[in-house]
Design brief:
Helices cover about 75% and strands about 0% of the residues. By secondary structure, the chain is mainly alpha-helical. It has a single domain, classed as c-terminal domain of poly(a) binding protein, CATH 1.10.1900.20.
């Protein structure tokens, strides 16, 4: 009995990954084994960094809120403690945006907390 291989499916599988690696440098774009390794590594980085991105943005928002409340004689932790005690339902993303782009509204929030 002759050996049966599914060359069509194998080629399609390879082409799919080589299409994804277009634009990579050197042999990462056209050598199958190198491209496959680069592609899988990239997927791992993407998965990891979707979570890292959330951490980085939260740190940025905290820094911006802290910088925004310092002129009013408060620290970030004081401000967040008071804002939670008052029951103001604004998250860090919104507070940071107010502190950066709308100082008057942020000042109103700080005064409501004080």
């Amino acid at each position: 009995m002759p050996r049966s291989v599914n060359a069509v499916a194998s080629r399609q599988r390879r082409k799919k990954i080589l299409k994804e690696t277009r634009g990579y440098f050197g042999s990462r774009k056209n050598v199958w084994t190198v491209a496959k390794n680069a592609y899988e590594k990239g997927l791992g980085y993407a998965y990891r960094d979707r979570r890292t991105k959330k951490r980085n943005f939260r740190a940025l928002w905290i820094t911006r809120i802290n910088a925004g409340v310092r002129p009013y004689g408060m620290s970030y932790s004081e401000f967040m403690g008071k804002i939670n005690k008052k029951g103001i339902e604004l998250n860090r993303k919104v507070l940071a945006d107010l502190a950066m782009n709308n100082p008057d509204a942020f000042e109103a929030v700080v005064k409501a907390v004080k």
